[in-house]
Design goal:
193 residues, 6 helices, 13% strand, alpha/beta
Length: 193
């Protein structure tokens, strides 16, 4: 509630400055610590299976709460950086876990709540593992039907300098009916020379 108290007025001012309309895309960084069997949400961890249904309901409740405030949510991602164990809020999802959470919990829960039109984006991470992740999820028809697109980030400097843009092209060739969405990036101290 504390964050929401300050976040909502800021978002509403941004919408006003944009002429009254903005698209909002939500990307969770971590389930609550208790859903991961932890003391905090930092340093990765995993969603415990017994909380899959509850975590899917968090998406529904969050979307509905924002929309009740006049903030239209265009789409969501399942997990920001699902393979990153960060020193900040993070949660690890393997490809199989992301696929199964989507097809068994998130997709059906959103549909049942009348939110089936929300765009669901998978992966939402770097380009290095994108082909493997996308293949695992989209080769499953039950999961594929819920996926609008694939999110990818700018960062690859940890990989020794190869930016791996070719992987985005490979994913596009594999699944041309899915959208590719650049979801995160910033200026890094990186020199490919």
């Amino acid at each position: 509630d504390h964050d929401r108290k300050y976040r909502l007025p800021m978002i509403k001012r941004a919408i006003e400055k944009a002429g009254g309309e903005m698209l909002f895309y939500m990307s969770p960084w971590s389930p609550p610590a208790f859903m991961k069997g932890r003391e905090n949400m930092l340093y990765g961890g995993k969603l415990l299976p017994e909380f899959n249904k509850s975590w899917a309901m968090y998406y529904v409740k969050t979307i509905k709460a924002y929309e009740a405030e006049g903030i239209n949510v265009w789409g969501i991602t399942i997990q920001n950086e699902p393979m990153a164990k960060q020193r900040w809020e993070s949660c690890i999802f393997s490809a199989d876990e992301e696929r199964d959470f989507l097809k068994k919990y998130l997709g059906p829960t959103l549909a049942k709540a009348g939110l089936g039109s929300k765009k669901i984006v998978i992966w939402d991470h770097n380009r290095d593992l994108i082909s493997q992740r996308v293949s695992t999820i989209l080769s499953d028809e039950a999961a594929n039907k819920y996926v609008w697109g694939i999110g990818f980030h700018w960062y690859e400097n940890w990989s020794g300098g190869e930016m791996m843009f070719v992987n985005i092209g490979k994913v596009n060739e594999m699944y041309p009916n899915k959208n590719l969405l650049f979801t995160e990036g910033c200026v890094e101290r990186f020199n490919a020379n």
